[in-house]
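ok so i was messing around last nite and threw this chain in just to see what happens. nothing serious, just curious
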Amino acid sequence: MDAAFTEEQHEIRRTLRELLHKHCGPDEVKAAVRTPPGYDERLWRRLAAQLGLPGLALPTAYAGVGCGPTELALACEETGRAVLPSPLIATAALAAPLILALGSERQRAELLPPLATGELTGTLAVPGGRLATALALTGANDGDWAGGGRAGGIQARRVAPEGAAAGPEGGGWRLYGEAGQVLNGHTAEVLVVAAHTGGFARSRTLLFLVRADAVGPADTAGRADAQVRGEGPAGLRGLLRTRQTALDETRAQARLELRDVPAELLGEGAGEDEWGGDGAAVARALAATGAVAAAALAAEAVGAADTALARTVAYVREREQFGRPIGSFQAVQHRLADLYVTLQAARSAVYYAAWSAGRGGSGEHTAAPYGPHGTAEPGVAALALAQALEALRAVAAEAVQLHGGIGFTWEHEAHLYFKRAACDELLLGPVHRLRARAAEEAGLFPGGAGAVDGGAPAGAARPTGAPATDRAREAVDA
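result:
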């Protein structure tokens, strides 16, 4: 392993940092999050056109840059420094990798180029706020987390083609249910929706594509109003998208309601039986995508923590108390030194997680930019994310404290980082579950935590109808 970054990787960081420094200060961030999309669309298009940001980890065959998770993580570290509100994580770390890994050649050719160039944005919709479980970050994603045939999830049913008898062969799909806490779900034109299908006997979770890009991108205000009212384009009248109020406004989230919405199976014809797609392949693809997404999100947290710490250090050098800067007091220096060590440890873990996720190959030679499914070292992604979230939480809390009275005011920029720390852990944590999952995947605990079902590796897909005793034993082990 060569721990040194290449000149190209350094250039990605420098260019992105300079651009964001000019166009994404705290005032611009606060203005952008209060727009209907929740981010600056002109800045997003500029990042896509000049830097190819959404296509950074996509192969050049699909209009991407041809890099991998390491470059994506470095870019996310820079966007985290600015607390940039954007659909980068939803598009580049969730939707695009799944389409690349599971989509048919037609679906890839149709969707990946516009996603890579920023013409379209995408996201992953998981019911019940179970995003971390779906990505195998806080638990095995081989259960009925997509609804399991019960209320509160998303159900998919196959419909016969017009003029044909009902049956498993042919026809399209319809989705019914709802999902909350969907990243950028109110503006994404390409929705990758996790839904339960097959009934009790053939229960499985599959991924479906829902297209919501019929409204022209120029009509921003009209599009947002239509989404809030549920007036989707023709063929999507059953799709209601509502932006949710969140503590962290820079991480826009939405609730999706699907009422008999037409959808397309992701990977149509690939690995399907007569009742639909391969549920085990979906679980593996989600877990592999989780490793990349965790590295990207952890890098954002490290970038945010780095900026918060730098601004706090600058403040304590200027703020005087008892006739001297408060940064000269030994107690303050010790607190800042502890934060610096915590931050550097988290950064090291993030870089290793990104390298581990991409060690299977580059985007030029493999179907997925991070290599074949399962190449990431077990537990590394969850552990890096836990350490990064913990570092950001500690730095943000100390930033508020060391800024004194002004740090407690809601409008102060320190709260951008404090809110990001709190909401990211709610979205993908908590930290102790991430650590427990990492320990389970790495096999640190004897007696079943590292291997279940007669030696199958932790996180490997199992039949949904596994005995309840097995599930109870796994819960106790975790």
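not much to say yet. The longest strand covers residues 253-265.
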